[in-house]
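Supplementary Note 3. Input sequence used for the single-chain structure prediction.
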Amino acid sequence: MNRIAVSISRGIARVTDAALGPYQTAVIRIGFAATWLLFLLREFPHRQEMYGPDGPWKWDLAQRLIADNHAFTILMWSDSQVWFETVYALAVLSALLLLVGWRTRTMSVLFMVGVLSLQNRSIFMGDGGDNVIHLMAIYLVFTRCGQVWSLDARRARRAREARARGDLPRAGVQDRAGLVLWATLGMVLAAATGAGWLSPGWLVVFWGLWALQMLWWAVGRLTRTAEPRILLDVVANAVHNAALLVIMAEACLIYATAGWYKIQGSRWQDGTAVYYPLHLDYFSPWPALSDLLASHGTMVMLVTYGTVAVQVAFPFTLINRRVKNVLLAAMMTEHAVIAVVLGLPFFSLAMIAADAVFLPTSFLRRLGGWTARARGRLFPPGARKLPGQRAQEPRIPEPAEDPHVGFTA
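The predicted structure, written as discrete structure tokens, is reproduced below.
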């Protein structure tokens, strides 16, 4: 009985003491923000036809559908051209700022708003990759995804260094940029509430998040005891870890359902399923390459059966790290091939970003080290060193003890 109690207490401590998977959540944040940003930039010339007034799915049709399914989109607040351009610019800006990790708490919410607003405006424009981004944009709101590889982490490190030097008051404790951002969003939210544009459910969500930001800042800046901040950290860590578990379960569910549905198809059973999309003009950006792959029957059969086997087996390989890593590399390679051969780059990027949650921490730390060294070669730190001073080696980022320093980090 005592052993069970000890195991339970250790499990609770592990879930609440720290936000697990800091590198994995950072990769997810970067991956999905980059995927959505690149998609918006590529489709910028066609944005009017896809989500705007010139699209085949007119504003009145979208309004009737949303009134029926209660989907969230701020594009339905107005049918003006100016409002559409504003929302599109908001989606681009929030994706960029989330990518670099500036005010990740606030940017994750704005990123979700941008994704849901555009995708729910024209639901027939999406594909499998859009569905994954749709879900992950919601999950990211509940994660502490700015612990490493972000401007928030750098700001937290500088605050710790200033605190160690004893000059924290000169380091910008007031966080005026955060206060301005919080107040501006509060006024926008108040205006939307007064106009009746938000449903009761979304009112609770957004006002709750806005109030939590205020509570986090007040506890961190105005209280003299550590207990309230520790309590908030415990709750935030528990929510983060639960969201990370949901992301992992979602990725497993995507592959499991895809694999088991494929098994039921006759073309997947006889090993010819991969042959047919290679001959569709819509999925043949490189016809010569598609014809070359389709001409080898044995390769088509191996890829068809291999795809089904990997997708069905992957959720069960999580108990074995080595097998999991092998299948993970195979799936990422497969998505990279799909991006090139079938012309689905954003679907593949979205799936690779989802797969990244299972990447080993040691590999991600090495990846961070390689990136830091490459950045050091491009921007040598010794370029500004004083005479006789040695250049510093590129520093590999570590998880921040307080990754959300600032009002809306």
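The radius of gyration is 24 Å. Residues 386-394, 400-409 have pLDDT under 50 and may be disordered.
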